[in-house]
Write a structure and sequence with these properties.
There is one protein chain. By secondary structure, this protein is of the alpha+beta class. The protein is built from seven helices and ten strands. The strands form three sheets. It has a five-stranded mixed sheet with strand order 6-5-4-7-8, sandwiched between helices. β5 and β6 form a beta hairpin. The radius of gyration is 17 Å and the shape is globular. The two termini are about 20 Å apart.
Length: about 230
């Protein structure tokens, strides 16, 4: 997987091994007063180069809170069938997307929703952005160019001493974030969960009197180990 294929401007991502990459040249000023679009994709599988998006979910964070009335959520018809293990994992079945819009029919709406926000993902540098870049190349769509923050990289920036792979569940436990009211592996619900984690992360930045994010040095991030779904 080549995570340099994110296609997003304003940062640099370099592979250093099969298990790690480094992020640099990422700068966000005045983090408190920025508008953020937290997004998540579900897909037919976990390899960005070969899979297709089946759901897009997104929320807006502004004034330090999730704007609960402003959400984006759509299923996407995939040209590739969803394998049965992925159907069970995500709760999205082939019948659900049979009459869903194609990506090019909803992509402009997603871009309009994101607007000029800074994007926020979890593991987006490894999965969501390479997947979207691949989909855009397939369909002749313009890749979104907004600056993008990844909660894995942000946590590694705050805690370089931690050697663990930063899974969502790790951050839920670390920041004591509740997910009991959310359906996991649903793109909109996962966007809300990522947003909650991101807000707790912002509290930690401010508690350390960090008002701007500046990856002046390489931030080392451990990549997820791909485990096929059974």
């Amino acid at each position: 997987m080549n995570i340099n294929s994110t296609g997003v401007t304003g940062m640099k991502i370099d592979n250093i091994s099969d298990t790690e990459y480094v992020v640099s040249e990422l700068f966000v000023d005045d983090i408190v007063n920025q508008r953020y679009c937290v997004f998540d994709f579900e897909a037919t599988g976990i390899i960005p180069e070969t899979e297709h998006i089946t759901q897009i979910g997104a929320i807006i964070i502004e004034h330090g809170r999730i704007q609960e009335t402003r959400t984006f959520n759509t299923l996407v018809k995939s040209p590739k069938p969803i394998p049965e293990p992925v159907e069970r994992h995500t709760g999205i079945y082939n019948d659900d997307i049979a009459y869903a819009p194609l990506l090019h029919e909803v992509y402009d709406d997603f871009l309009a929703f994101a607007g000029d926000c800074i994007l926020v993902t979890h593991a987006g540098y490894e999965f969501d952005l390479p997947l979207l870049a691949k989909e855009c190349r397939r369909s002749g769509l313009p890749m979104i160019l907004n600056k993008c923050l990844d909660t894995k990289a942000l946590f590694s920036y705050l805690h370089p001493e931690i050697e663990a792979i930063i899974w969502t569940d790790y951050l839920i436990k670390h920041y004591e974030v509740s997910d009991r009211d959310l359906k996991r592996h649903d793109a909109l619900a996962d966007s809300i969960l990522i947003g909650r984690i991101f807000l707790r992360m912002m509290e930690e930045f401010l508690a350390r009197d960090i008002r701007s994010i500046a990856f002046k040095d390489h931030v080392r991030v451990k990549r997820f180990q791909v485990v096929p779904l059974a």
